[in-house]
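In response to a reviewer's request, we include the raw inputs and outputs for one of the modeled complexes. The two entities were modeled together in a single run.
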Amino acid sequence: MAELFDKLYTYFQFPFVRYAVIVAVLVSLCASMLGVILVLKRFSFIGDGLSHVAFGAMAIAAVTGLTNNMLIVMPVTVICAILILCTGQNSKIKGDASIAIISVSSLALGYLLYNVFSTSSNVSGDVCSTLFGASSILTLKQSDVWISIVMSVVVIVLFIFFYNKIFSVTFDENFACATGTSAKLYNLIVAVITAVIIVLAMNLVGSLLISALIIFPSLSAMRVFNTFKSVTVCAVINSVVCTSVGMIISILAETPVGATIVAVDAVVFIIYTAVGRIAGHKK
Amino acid sequence: MALLTCKDVTLGYEGMVVTENVNFSIKHGDYLCIVGENGSGKSTLMKTILKLVNPLKGEIITGDGLKQKEIGYLPQQTMVQRDFPASVSEIVLSGYLNRCGLRPFYTKGEKRLAEDNMRKMDILDLKDQCYRELSGGQQQRVLLARALCAAKKMILLDEPVSGLDPKVAREMYELIYKLNKEDGITVVMISHDINEAVRYADKILHIGSNSPLFFGDTRDYVKSGIADSFIRTKEAE
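The model returned the following structure tokens for the whole complex.
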């Protein structure tokens, strides 16, 4: 045991490990808060959809040789998030289908671009690391850390400030509109912060596993808790704990960061489901 | 002065006309039932009154100090709500959102008023229960309590008893009737059930397939014979 702690202590001497842990915890905290809303709005797959969009945008950035690919990735993803989340219930193409359309097209486009134009010698390596997150979380610069911290604080403040409005709009959009709450505005806010969080989280777990960060904590919480407030709080705690544990395991066992975090999330989900069942039977 | 007036309104969405020339007005304390076939535009009319949909032609005027956002609304249930993890009091409180403006949280006074409304709907003991675990009738009471929080003078109900069994439906009708008579709240309700509509409402608006067939007092409506075919088919069943 002491050996493990020693190993952990040595690792935490490196600044890049500390950065990685800070960013991972913050990003997954925000993702889980949004996740409660997105799962309830039946947009569980938006994480997948938007991260594929971000993948496509990254391909464009890589091919055109932009040094700071955030300049392309962020705006493109935000626009697609708005397209998906703000078309509402009345559009001809429903939510799940529009996510599917946008996500597969950008995935295809991105891979095409990588293959046709890429200057790098290791195309499948590039693609794989974008899809699964690989090691980029460990190569964060201090500026990346600051961006993540600022973004996370903004998201948390927005969420707390608009908590009651977001609840009302998620529960019943028509009622909220009828009584003078601008559902469009709050849908827009949710869409934009979703996109921001997804782009930030791509560094962490990669674009294929990102849905897990969004849906697992809140789904687990919903197995056991019954009020919106307790579900939100529990989801946030779940995600912080799971991400920390996942990071520590991946450092100690030298497993891939993203996959380990998601695996921990999945185990916790199974535990919550069991607890929910047992508690349910008692009633 | 009328609380709400509909003047030569043409209803529809995305340019498609559903119903033309809808004219009626509601006074304080009225109980209006809107009846008609499926697809005749009853729900569209309600959404137009609430400004969720714009009328294609004509106008809807609110008077007598009725503010647009002070109309309480009980919508039809959506898929999302059926498994929504929220407590009864969280949902009822959200009716007060229109008073908050930029204020992020509810005041103590609003929480107390919400409890009053829950007591009125006889759901105060369910306050901390989860919405998705309630029965259909209880869920409707919760949504009605929320509508009461939002409303000062008028509530709009979109088929409040759909999917409820007859006994619970009757209780719901009685509850709404009591709100109208005892608390003086103006009620506008969409109903499929003409028999119940005639029993409780003071006024009836019957919308036909593309234009309104009748608007006026319930007594005149029964005399006019428009509803006969509906009532008779009900009895024949």
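As requested, we also summarize the result in words. The two ends of chain B are 43 Å apart (CA to CA). The beta strands of chain B are 4-13, 16-26, 31-36, 57-62, 71-74, 154-158, 186-190, 203-207, 212-217.
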